[in-house]
């Protein structure tokens, strides 16, 4: 009986020890397995990358994307409802130019032939004045003589066959055309240091008026520039709307 009791006590003491040994072996096994697994996948993990279970991802747009799409659609609606979008711009009866307007470009090109000359006008997007500019900007504009009117930049080139051309940098305001600079371009040379004449405003006043008349008889006059002013404002709305829709389509994809 005493011997049996001794065996029972010994067995009871050995059981926890055996369990501890088995648990330790399991932990060592899983630790070794985890180390081997990490070593195997390490080359395929970018530094700093985080991996999550697939159940955390969604195929639909995020809340930020949804908000962006809502704002884009709201802006599309505003453009469509604006008075400038889709407005019919009447072409003047004496408009002498052929107008080329390519979708997606920020300029339109006018061309015409006049007494052996080729006249080209590159018309850029308008500089719009909305009345929301800062007071400092208004003071600066007044000092420069620009006032608070929207304007359209023009680059006018008068070219003769196989010869030089006169290039005018022009700003068109409503009912006013301002020549900012002019230069004589020679197609046979590209000398960046060539003398291009004085500043236009430094020319004699009579000479300035004569250059304005020179452009006027070639079709660069208020009736033309007023039409271009309205046309470019409407084009600006069209191009902006197209851009909004393209961005919205990209976010939705």
Automatic annotation (TrEMBL):
GO terms for cellular component: mitochondrial matrix. Residues 131-146 have a biased composition (Acidic residues). Residues 129-149 are annotated as: Disordered. Pfam families: MAM33 (PF02330). This is Mitochondrial glycoprotein. The lineage of its organism: Eukaryota, Viridiplantae, Streptophyta, Embryophyta, Tracheophyta.
């Amino acid at each position: 009986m005493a011997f049996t009791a001794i065996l029972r006590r010994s067995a009871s003491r050995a059981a926890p020890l055996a369990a501890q040994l088995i648990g330790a072996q399991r932990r060592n096994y899983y630790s070794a397995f985890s180390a081997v697994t990490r070593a195997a996948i390490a080359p395929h993990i970018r530094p700093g990358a985080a991996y999550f279970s697939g159940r955390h991802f969604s195929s639909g747009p995020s809340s930020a994307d949804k908000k962006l799409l809502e704002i884009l659609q709201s802006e599309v609606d505003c453009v469509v409802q604006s008075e400038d979008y889709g407005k019919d711009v009447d072409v003047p009866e004496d408009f002498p130019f052929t107008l080329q307007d390519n979708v997606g470009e920020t300029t339109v090109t006018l061309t015409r032939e006049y007494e052996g000359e080729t006249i080209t006008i590159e018309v850029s997007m308008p500089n719009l004045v909305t009345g929301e500019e800062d007071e400092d900007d208004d003071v600066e504009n007044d000092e420069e003589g620009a006032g608070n009117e929207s304007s359209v930049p023009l680059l006018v080139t008068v070219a003769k066959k196989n010869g030089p051309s006169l290039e005018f940098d022009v700003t068109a305001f409503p009912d006013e055309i301002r020549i900012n600079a002019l230069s004589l371009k020679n197609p046979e040379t590209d000398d960046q240091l060539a003398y291009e004449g004085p500043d236009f405003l430094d020319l004699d006043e009579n000479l300035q008026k004569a250059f304005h008349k020179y452009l006027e008889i070639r079709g660069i006059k208020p009736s033309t520039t007023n039409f271009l002013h309205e046309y470019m404002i409407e084009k600006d709305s069209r191009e902006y709307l197209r851009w909004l829709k393209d961005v919205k389509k990209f976010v939705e994809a």
